[in-house]
Specification:
Helix content: 55-70%
CATH topology of the largest domain: Rna Polymerase Sigma Factor, Chain: A
CATH class of the largest domain: Mainly Alpha
Number of helices: 8
Mean pLDDT: 79
Radius of gyration: 21 Å
Oligomer: single chain
Strand content: under 5%
CATH architecture of the largest domain: Orthogonal Bundle
Number of domains: 2
Largest sheet: none
């Protein structure tokens, strides 16, 4: 069996780190060890992706694609960071690429509809203003918040998701996004400020 050598000079996890042991097992010819990693992190990766793309089917597909790509690139994981940090970076890159493609596709579809509708209304909002249910009000507020999140640039949304959903420390967010910690704090500040402004605009008067 070929010995797998890893770079242990970095400030990453120790050799006894459970994830690193699983990675080494996979690289040494035990693909079943990868199933352990998938089961350990599939829910977290799904929620990170869902927080970015806001579509359950797209999130499931992208999360699955993330684990496939990670498996294919596992030999490049140098264990200088946590395995979850590394795979979360893959998930985030896939999510951002998906959002950019979707934005271009939506613009093209809107242009087509505008050209064929002769100025007719193509977007209709359905609401139930007379429903007194508290659940409806919660749903309305949730949608307002998430609609506000949807307006954020991809880089600000990524920081917000990792901080607010994953509760990641700034240092790890910086590793995932491959930016300085100061950039993480700046993006988070502007994301939160933009959300406050947008939510204030939707707050009922009185």
């Amino acid at each position: 069996m070929t010995e797998i050598k890893t770079d242990t000079t970095g400030a990453g996890p120790p050799p006894s780190d459970p994830d690193s042991l699983m990675v080494l097992a996979v690289l040494n010819g035990d693909p079943e060890a990868y199933r352990v990693l998938v089961e350990r992190y599939e829910r977290r990766i799904y929620y990170v992706v869902y927080g970015m793309v806001r579509n359950p089917e797209d999130a499931r597909d992208l999360a699955q694609d993330c684990f496939v790509k990670a498996f294919q690139a596992l030999h490049r994981f140098r264990m200088e960071s946590r395995f979850y940090t590394w795979i979360c970076r893959i998930a985030m890159n896939l999510s951002i690429d998906h959002l950019r493609k979707r934005k271009h596709r939506n613009h093209a579809e809107f242009d087509e509809m505008r050209g064929s509708s002769g100025g007719a209304q193509v977007v209709r909002l359905h609401s139930k203003p007379d429903d007194p249910s508290q659940n409806v009000e919660r749903e309305r507020m949730y949608r307002t918040i998430m609609d506000a999140v949807d307006t954020l640039p991809e880089d600000q949304r990524a920081v917000l998701v990792l901080r607010e959903i994953e509760d990641m420390p700034y240092k790890e967010i910086a590793e995932v996004l491959d930016v300085p910690e100061g950039t993480v704090m700046s993006r988070l500040y502007y994301a939160r400020r933009r959300l406050q402004v947008l939510l204030a605009e939707h707050r009922p008067n009185g």
